[in-house]
Amino acid sequence: MTTTVYVAKSILTMNPMQPRATHVAVRDGRILAVGDLARCAEWGAHTLDERFADKVLMPGLVEGHCHLKEGSMWEWTYTGWFDRRDPDGKVWAGLRSMDEVVARLAEVDARLAAEGAPATQPLIAWGFDPIYFGGERMTVEHLDRTSATRPVVISHANGHLMNVNSAMLRLAEITRDNDVEGVVKFAPGHPQAGEPTGELQEPAAMFLVLRRINNAGLLAPMTEAGVRSFARLACRQGVTTATDLVNKLGEDDIQVLERTLADDSVSIRLLPAFQAFHGTHAAPAGAEHVKSLMARNTDRLRYGLVKMMLDGSIQGFSARLRWPGHFNGAPNGIWVTAPAQYEADFETYHRAGLTIHTHTNGDEASEAAIDAIERVLTRAPRPGHRHTLQHGQMIDAPLFRRMASLGLCANLFTNHLWYWGDQHYEMTMGPDRANRLDACGSALAAGVPLAIHSDAPVTPLGPLFTAWCAVNRITPKGRVLGESEKLTVMQALHAVTLGPAWTLKLDGEIGSIECGKRADFCVLEDDPLEVGPAALKDVRVWGTVLSGRVFQA
């Protein structure tokens, strides 16, 4: 048996009983000892590896809510507001007006034509969000300037909406007579009153396009190249374990995952969550499908999670809000799953022994989930279930207290504080509710197990940035949203290591550097506890170690 002892400038273990060390011994991909060299040497013959002697080690970071499409969205055209770096390191400039978005798409259309692409080949883009453009919404009148003949599909950053041009409407057979919820139509008084605007909200409406073009948006099929790109991005951000928090887990999906993750050169452990909404299985068959896959689990691929969804996107105005509703008076959002159906399906997966992660953005949706889960747990108690509400951005203190009493976890979308904090303050929620957006402090005060996340590709993968958001709670305009809801740096680091590990039922294997756990490390150039809270996002990542295998970013 070969033992390797790594020496580091410092090791931040995230184990409160032994917070710091200088050496860690690794054997068979697991941690054998933590402490100084003498402690590690007590296990006998070893190789001393000094490559991290000037680095800081901490547990491999855990992203408890993201999507593998972060790796392959870059096959399409980026149209977001913020500058963004792709898997190869290129920075794409953000687009600051509707005209800039149309111009970038027109450039791509012209390039496709010059390359001889047929006019039927769709132009697919992603990352768009009209909330940054004030009250203006994108319509066919914008996208038809890109092309009147080529189908154009542009997915919003939130993944809950898309816009298409007239050519795509025709291909999808979407007309004024279509009554699917989420097909937006021009208002009375508009020259095209009653006709589709090209904006499609939530899965039922987007399905009308995706049944014709299935390679657009978050629910597009995975590719092996996309998984590998995701792993490279994850390594660059210090992530060793991540979720793919909505996956149909069809046979093609399973083959891509199992084939790619069997390769030792791929630097990520993945937990795909079965899509239990608008899926291909009824709940009983879905539960059996997930349970059957769990027998195929490996170190780097873990089946067993279930993803459910109640509402939509706050900034997309498709989330479900309690009184007083949207600050700008917009109508309430969409039930992606009717609450009664959610409760019935939740109970099926719960009784099957599976771990359920539920998307709830608006507070009405969070309350509906808590109400349903409370009734299910009354009928079918199950200690240690660790069911988790994901996003939970408008959950207040009373709801957190109810969650704690039910054993529910929270994984909050703290990146919203930076990316949409000003818009929530000014447009969607108003000042009071924006000041308790992603209320991490309230969650901890209520005793709710807490994780925080990026929801990549909705926002970029990067747990240290996510932690920075939770610690500083600052917006691009300089507002501090909820001083009392701030986390300390140590609390935020817990929320990107042991916190998500708990929600994934992996805290016995990952999340801290302790004897017996997987040898998963995030290798840093700087010490996150010494740089100061404002600089947390700028801590440099050298690479990762996954089950004892070293990967330089």
Strands, helices and their partners?
Blueprint: E1 3-12, E2 20-27, E3 30-35, H1 37-41, E4 47-49, E5 56-59, E6 61-63, H2 69-72, E7 77-78, E8 84-85, E9 91-92, H3 98-114, E10 123-128, H4 140-143, E11 152-156, E12 161-164, H5 166-172, E13 183-185, E14 196-201, H6 202-210, H7 224-236, E15 239-247, H8 251-261, E16 269-275, H9 283-294, E17 305-309, H10 339-351, E18 355-360, H11 363-379, E19 388-391, H12 397-406, E20 409-412, H13 416-419, H14 421-428, H15 431-434, H16 440-446, E21 450-452, H17 463-472, H18 489-494, H19 498-503, E22 521-524, E23 541-546, E24 549-552
Structure description:
The chain has 553 residues and is of the alpha/beta class. The chain is built from 19 helices and 24 strands. Strands 1, 2, 3, 4, 5, 22, 23 and 24 form an eight-stranded mixed beta sheet that branches. It has an eight-stranded parallel beta sheet with strand order 6-15-16-17-18-19-20-21. The protein has a six-stranded mixed beta sheet with strand order 7-10-11-12-14-13, sandwiched between helices. Helix 9 (283-294) packs parallel to helix 10, helix 10 crosses helix 11 (363-379) and helix 11 runs parallel beside helix 12 (397-406). The longest helix has 17 residues, at 98-114.
Which segments are poorly predicted (pLDDT under 50) over 5 or more consecutive residues?
Answer: none
Multimerization state? single chain
> What's the helix count?
19
Q: Based on DSSP secondary structure assignment, what is the total number of beta strands?
A: 24
What fraction of the residues are assigned to beta strands by DSSP? 15-25%
